[in-house]
Amino acid sequence: MKKITIAIDGFSSTGKSTLAKQLAKELEYVYVDTGAMYRAVAYFAMQHNLIEADFFKKEALVEALSDIKLEFKFNSDLGFAEMYLNGENVEKQIRTIEVSNFVSKVAAVSEVRSKLVEQQQEMGTNKAIVMDGRDIGTVVFPNAELKIFMTASAETRAQRRFDELQQKGDNVSYEEVLKNVVDRDYMDTHREDSPLVIADDAIEIDNSYLNKEEQFAAVLELVNDVVKTV
């Protein structure tokens, strides 16, 4: 079967990573969670006191980029690759609400985006890849054979994220999560460098009222249709 590149973009907490993992497993493709890469950089900035609620030392972070090594290492028990920052597994640490509060600010830094986009494009050289993020279909892989743009209401996404954090034992309120979702939407769509927009040739999917199985079936059908035509 012909191998293609699948780019999945969309707002935060729309289930992009879940869908991408499902597709990669079904198609035996490589899966890359670009959001985890930006989260890891944000976590690095937090570790080194480069970002707080009232300040962001952008120049210092840019200078430290050469000290940041990001790797995905496959975990056979979980069935997907986890994020490593400078040799340390940070998969759990980067999924907190604290990191979520800073990741959009870090992702807006042009030098950070340039460094990570270069790595992402290198990962997709041989196709057979599913990558999700904010600018995959517009910047990273503008020639991807299939582009999906996922959306849902802010309230629906906040509830999903809140439930997920509660299951992990995080002590957060729904109001706090909703504010984070709304704030991230604004920052992602208004940043100067590679803002979140839907590509002209992307297929938009509003999954406010779709479960994971229904969404997966619909997108897998799109994949099969595209593969037949390339």
Automatic annotation (TrEMBL):
It is found in: Cytoplasm. SUPFAM superfamilies: P-loop containing nucleoside triphosphate hydrolases. The keyword S-adenosyl-L-methionine does not apply. InterPro entries: Cytidylate_kin, Cytidylate_kinase_dom, P-loop_NTPase. Coiled coil: none annotated. Pfam families: Cytidylate_kin. Its main location: cytoplasm. Residues 6-224 form the Cytidylate kinase domain. ATP binds at residues 10-18. Its EC number is 2.7.4.25. Belongs to the cytidylate kinase family. Type 1 subfamily. GO terms for molecular function: kinase activity. It catalyses: CMP + ATP = CDP + ADP; dCMP + ATP = dCDP + ADP. Keywords: ATP-binding, Cytoplasm, Kinase, Nucleotide-binding, Transferase. It comes from Flavobacterium chungangensis. The gene is cmk. This is Cytidylate kinase. The keyword Cytoplasm applies.
